[in-house]
Amino acid sequence: MDDLYGVIGDPIAHSMSPVMHNAAFRDARIQAAYGRLHVSPEGLQDAIKGIRALGLRGINVTVPHKTAVMPLLDEIDPLASSIGAVNTIVNREGKLIGYNTDGLGYVEGLKKHIKGGLSSKEVLIIGAGGAAKAIYYTLASLGVKKIDLTNRSEGKAIDLIASCPMDIESHYYKLPQAELNLHHYDVVIQTTSIGMFPKVEESPLRVGMVKEGAVFSDIIYNPLQTSFLKQAEQKGAVIQNGIDMFIYQGALAFEKWTGVTPDTDLMKDVVLKQLGGS
Ligand code: ATR
C-alpha cells in the first residue's frame, strides 16, 4: 500500500505542494501519494484525529492552521515552539511531532545567493507576520550579526523582537526610516503580501540606494518578480524570489518524513511549470 501524505489548509485548492511532493516521491522511487486536504478551522481537531486513525505518514500545515494545530500534537520541536507555528507534522509510529521548516527552508535558499557566512550579515526584514517570525527566529538561531525589522504596525514588530528567545542585536524602524536606511543592509527580506498577484504594482517601500553585493529577497512567488524585486535589480542588488523558500521548506519536510534528500532542481522545475514560468 502507498504511504499517504497531504497538506491541510483553508483555502487549499491552489496549493502546489502536491505536484512538488508527488514528483519527488516518484523520482526517489518511494511508493507514496500526497493530496490536498481541505480542512476548515472547525474541522481541525477531527482532521488531526483522522490523521492518527488513518495512519497518514506526514502532513504539511498551511494558513490558517499553523498555530491552532500545535496543542493537538504530541510533541513540538523547539524551533517550531519558539516561532509559535508548525508547517510540518511527522507521524512517528503514531506519535505526531510538529516542526517548522519555513525559516530553515528560507535560509537554505538564501545561502545560495550570499557570499561568506551568515555571521557577518546585517539583515532587514520587512513585515512582522508569521512568515517574518519564522525567518527572523531561524536567522537569529543561526547567529546572524543583526536583524532589524520594519512593519506598518509598530506594536507587532516590537512584540516579535521582544519575544525572540535568542539574544540578537535588533531595532525597529518605521517604513519611511527603513527606506532611507536600505543601503546599510547586506540582506533585505520582504515578507508581507504586498505586491502579490493581482496587485503587482504595489511595493512596501521604494528601493533607493543598495549596498554593494546586497541580496534583496521576496517570499512572494506569484509574480516571480515583484515590483520590489524589479526596483532592487535596477539598483544593482542580487535578487531572489519566493520559489526557493517554497521548494526548500518542502524538501526539508520530505527529508523528515522519508529520510531521503529529494532532488530540489526537479521540484523547482515542476513548480515553475505549474506557475507557467520558465
Ligand atoms: P503571514 O503569516 O503570511 O506572514 P500575516 O501574519 O497576515 O501573514 O502578516 C502579514 C504581514 O504583511 C504583516 O507584517 C502586515 O503588516 P501589519 O502587521 O501592519 O498588519 C503586512 N501587510 C499586509 N498587507 C499590508 C499593507 N497593505 N500595507 C502594509 N503592510 C501590510
Structure description:
With 278 residues, the chain is an alpha/beta fold. Helices cover 37% and strands 19% of the residues. The protein is built from ten helices and twelve strands. Strand 8, helix 6 (154-162) and strand 9 form a beta-alpha-beta unit. The mean pLDDT is 96. The structure holds 2'-monophosphoadenosine-5'-diphosphate (ATR).
Produce the secondary structure layout.
Layout: E1 3-9, H1 17-27, E2 32-38, H2 44-54, E3 58-61, E4 75-76, H3 78-83, E5 88-92, E6 95-99, H4 102-111, E7 122-126, H5 130-141, E8 146-150, H6 154-162, E9 172-173, H7 175-181, E10 187-190, E11 215-218, H8 227-234, E12 238-240, H9 243-258, H10 264-275
Parallel strand pairs: 1-2, 1-3, 4-6, 7-8, 7-10, 8-9, 10-11, 11-12
Antiparallel strand pairs: 3-5, 5-6
Helix pairs in contact: 1-9, 1-10, 4-5, 4-9, 9-10
The structure holds 2'-monophosphoadenosine-5'-diphosphate.
2'-monophosphoadenosine-5'-diphosphate is lined by residues 127-132, 151-153, 156, 191-194, 204.
Strand content: 15-25%
Order of helices and strands: EHEHEEHEEHEHEHEHEEHEHH
What is the strand arrangement across the widest sheet?
A: 2-1-3-5-6-4
General shape: globular
Helix/strand/pairing class, anyone? alpha/beta
**Major β-sheet profile:** 6 strands, mixed
> What does the average pLDDT come to?
96
* Annotation field: number of helices: 10
Give every kind of bound small molecule, once each: 2'-monophosphoadenosine-5'-diphosphate
Give unreliable regions as ranges. Answer: none
Rg from C-alpha positions?
A: 19 Å
